[in-house]
Amino acid sequence: FQPYANNIAEFIRTYAPGAEIVIQQTWAYRADHPQFREGSDWGISQEEMYNRLTVNYKRLSEELGGLRIIPSGYAVQLARKLQSINFSPMSEDDVAKFNYPDLPPQSGSLVGKHYYMKNEDTQEFELKADLIHLNARGEYLQAMVWLGMLYGIDVTNLDYVAEGVGAADAAFLRKIAQKAIESAGNIPETC
To answer: In sequence order, what are the beta bridge partners of 116?
Structure first.
């Protein structure tokens, strides 16, 4: 994070001295990310990625004067642990068997998605994967965490359901978001 976090914080303190600086804790990548495979450069699991991110965000918060941390990463990890349907990664060989427009199952995923993109040379659709960014469920969860943290509201009292998220799932994700918000001052380093 450094020296960039110091540079950004100093810039904000100089040009917007009344602004509160907060840090968003990011999330561990999806379980089928190549860096979690045996023999990868990282040599860690998804859970260890979460643990290391959490330790480093806490350290950064202290280095910058005890900034509040928006616990998006904790919310994602908590949802992964408590949801009734867990994401089950497929092997690369099984994923390669899919043909346009069929997609691999994404049930239980909060991070990442498969999609098709047209190859400019061959004009054929190729299956791609984003295993880093939040999908619709993850974005909804993140929005609830930010809303509750920044506005101090209990998000379990809301009834908004985003496109791509079912009503029951939205209620579950709001409960997870609220639990993460309530733990924001003491985010667990392991989940």
So the answer is: 127
Q: Could you give phi then psi for residue 145, rounded to 5 degrees?
A: -65, -50
Residue type, 55: V
Helix/strand/coil (H/E/C) assignment for every residue in the chain: CCCHHHHHHHHHHHHCCCCCCEEECCCCCCCCCHHHCCCCCCCCCHHHHHHHHHHHHHHHHHHCCCCEEECHHHHHHHHHHHCCCCCCCCCHHHHHCCCCCCCCCCCCCCEEEEEEEECCCCCCEEEEEEEEEECHHHHHHHHHHHHHHHHCCCHHHCCCCCCCCCHHHHHHHHHHHHHHHHCHHHCCCCC
Structure tokens at 59: 């350290």
Tell me how far apart the alpha carbons of residues 110 and 29 are, in angstroms, rounded to a whole number: 10
| pLDDT tens-place string over residues 131-168 | 999 999 999 999 999 999 999 999 999 999 999 999 99
Instruction: Please tell me whether the overall predicted TM-score, pTM, comes out greater than 0.90 for this model.
Output: yes
Peptide bond into 71 cis (omega under 30): no
